[in-house]
Design goal:
The chain is α/β, with parallel strands linked by helices. The chain is built from ten helices and 15 strands. The chain is globular, with a radius of gyration of 20 Å.
Length: about 350
Amino acid sequence: MMKLLNLTCLIILSFIGNNALAQTYEVSPDNDVMKLTFLGTGAPRPSTERYGPSIYIEAGDHKILVDAGPGMRERLFEAGGFAAISGVDHLLITHLHFDHTVSISSAWLSGWLFGRRVPLKIQGPVGIKDMMENIKKAYQWDVDYRVMVGVPIEGTELIVDEVSEGVIFNEDGIKITAFPVEHMPIDVKTGKLLGLRGETLGFRIDYKGHSVLFSGDTRSTEESRINEEGKGVDLLIHEVQVPSPGATKEANLANVSLSVHSTPEQAGLVFTKTKPRMAVYSHIIPPGTTAEELEKDTKPYYSGPLTVAHDFMEITLAGDEIIVGEREKQSSGKFEDSNVLEK
């Protein structure tokens, strides 16, 4: 009980401006600090408040992106300037919807142009290889042009893995586990899958005693792998859709996607089953939904710690602490800070 009270106090303190606490914990291979920055917490519908889904993870020497939605590059630049853009060398893609993938080309080419000189590793579901082959073809002229005028070719390489389930990465204390989630289209009357080829994934990242689960886009069922993979994790980051009221054409169209997403009630029941140290909402549909609305709709089904993420929220895991704060905007914006030729 005391641990829960301490955690709650930390959350409250962070929201009233205690970013200094998070800043005392620097990410290093010599410690267990893990930082997550929510670059985008929205969905397909455009929003200037919530960009497309993308989460930036720093642990040890590793910088990883989970999904690459619209606006990812600009948010990443704000978070850490050219160093952040060129530092990402690993992408985890939950599924191939455009709102999760449209900035993959930016991660690849901007990262290379501004200093990444190692291959970009991309892991995702069936179809990610075809997608990346087509992206490579689309931008081959661009790559050839820039190499011709002096940008080193190193860093243009792609390592693309199609994954389904199990441990997909295990290096330097970071273990990444993939598992299937339920987001494929169904006949809403029968509940049967409509037969579209493909798969959607969730990911769990473990690092030096910390654990974070990313639900990806998913409906909630008794059979969901999240119920098992998410048990007792530090952070369970889950998508959510609030049903649109009324019977207008717009409301009916918006609510069609309820068959492939999770309501606050459904997500709340998942949190109650898995008992994470902190539940987190991201990929929020519609993007104008307020934190107060989500908390109110979830409370009857889950009484544990809940955070509604917003763009540029930063969560730090360090020792037993979970610190929720705001990412400082670190970019100078100076081109001289990039490493186009030097790295």
